[in-house]
Amino acid sequence: MKIGIVGAGIAGLALGNALVQRGVDVEIFERSARVRAGGSGITLAPNGLAALDALGLGERFRALQEQQLPLRGGLKDPRGTWLSRIPAEVTTQSLAISRAKLHGLLRDGLPDARLHTGVEVLGADPETGEIELASGETRDFDLVVGADGINSNVRGSCFDDPGTRYAGYNAWRAIGPKIDGLEFGSETWGTKARFGVVPLQDGSTYWFAVKTGPESRAGEKCSDELKSTFNHWHYPIPQLIAATPEQDIQFLPIRELASPLPSYTNGRVVLVGDAAHAMTPNLGQGACQGLEDVAVLADLLGGAGDGTVDDTLDLALYDQQRVKRSQRIARQSRLVGDVAHTGGHRVAWLRNRVLQATPDALTERQTKRVTDWR
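Now predict its structure.
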């Protein structure tokens, strides 16, 4: 079986690496001139790491997990008062890592000949498995995997594409220096604004800020708005902003699929990651859900041997395992954003009181519904 993967992001690289280990003939096409990640961080929750284990890639990440300080986390208000805590069972089994490091680890072990950079795929034919390149060339595969992100060309060519929608808030994100005394990751909720801080495995600090407002335009930074919104919040938020060079700060609108897809498969084409279910980042589950996708798909492809999609691979099994779960988490993530960014000061005050009164056992059950997998 010959597999073509469109996109060399987290999901595409993870799937390609896992399939190479399984002896599957695979090629990856990436439209950028080189495989790269944005200058920010990411937290792999227990389900993301479990998916990497299932892919046979977990060992390299578990080694980093052992090197990091035990993570703790939860929600605070702008004065620094704890509103709720994430169960230690979840945080201590997570890995906070830079996206560049993550991409590098997923790229390692993938033969150069399998990865084609600077090659844009315009679309795919679900009946034949043919992909069309921007150069005018075509390539044939038994199965095409669309891992080309939220603005997926593969989705647009093979599915009833719902497009994307603006979630109502923009985000700044960056990796800043090590902050003395920072032992906890946390997210702080104010009025229509949030700020997250995560100490990374290498000692640096990943931070993100989110604020309700009109959708940002390409190239905007809005640095004055960032400072005016968060400079009076608790330590180390103002210090992190001040210590991070402006050119290292990304500013982008938060978008998601406008409506869920009824299926992630069509003939010889299957979608994974953001191409299938792009979601808001409010639960930190975008990459983790993509890794779950490719772990399930790799199992199916590894068992298909030398056959074809028609006679050995039942892609309905992929839909059965992935559509309901990924879309439930996308809905939950959207709801978290609505709760965090709706209403004025009185609504925010009431929300925070409810969070403080929520039993830890309930928080733990809700969290584990997301982070437990297999």
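The chain has a mean pLDDT of 92.
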